[in-house]
Write a structure and sequence with these properties.
The relative contact order is 0.09. Strands 2-1-3-4 form a 4-stranded parallel beta sheet, with helices on both faces. Helix 7 crosses helix 10. It is an alpha/beta fold. It is 57% helix and 7% strand. It has 11 helices and 4 strands. The chain folds into 2 domains: 148 residues, Rossmann fold, CATH 3.40.50; 106 residues, no CATH class.
Amino acid sequence: MPVKIFSCYAREDERLLNRLKTHLKPLQRQGLINIWHDRDISAGAEWEREISKQLNEAQIILLLISPDFMASDYCYSVEMKRAMARHERGEAYVIPVILEHVYWQVEPLSKLQVLPTDAKPVISSNWHNLNEALFNVVEGVCKKAEEIFLGTPENAREKQFSISRQLNRRFSSELEDEQAELTTQEYARCKQVEQALTSRQRDVLHAFAKGRNPQEIAENLCISLSTVSTHSTKIFHECRFAWDLPENYALTYHFLREHFGKYFSDDEWSMPARTPANTSEESLNFSKEHQRST
């Protein structure tokens, strides 16, 4: 039987819950887990009774911790209280998942092992992107689900060996399919950003994709650092839209290199040389800034 997982979350965090469910889908396809949240309530069912039923049957209870969760009387005082009661009786495992920076180190949460690793929030500069953070969460959930699915190691070594081989075969096939899909999505997002930029903004994006820093870009394109910064702001804006990232997600130049480096890997583009023909308003701005710095 699949391990039953119940998700307790604030309504404002539903988008992140859906992304987490997407990452957990391979485990669900393999029959390892079955994840439930209140959007799965069928028409005509009594809402509170169905939630109580699912919460009481769950073997793993995920608490999606955010400022909205901590502020919700229902999430914090009702659902979490019931979850902790089952956890303390040994009937279920409660795993807090830290979505955003918030003061969560209060009892009973402070007594639990949280995800992601080292309690680094999913939405933070600790991760290159959202997928990396959610992958870390899925690893932790998978480990606990396997422990429950297999029973204690002493009584299930033979069973673990058999199931592990099955899961590995299925994982390989699923990951290959998902990797192909992600590659297609990644290309489409990069293309969307590129098409939204001006020619000079694309030059700046190309340079960041090749690992250049702002100073090098300014010097090679004969533009000022402030112009590079202005172009970067536009590039980050289009990236945030293409990847559907929240406003508080910190975008860095590393993000551009990671995502656009592969996109431009087969491109023969090279940074324009510094020549008098490049003289323009941008190059004049660079000269003025250079004079001030010297």
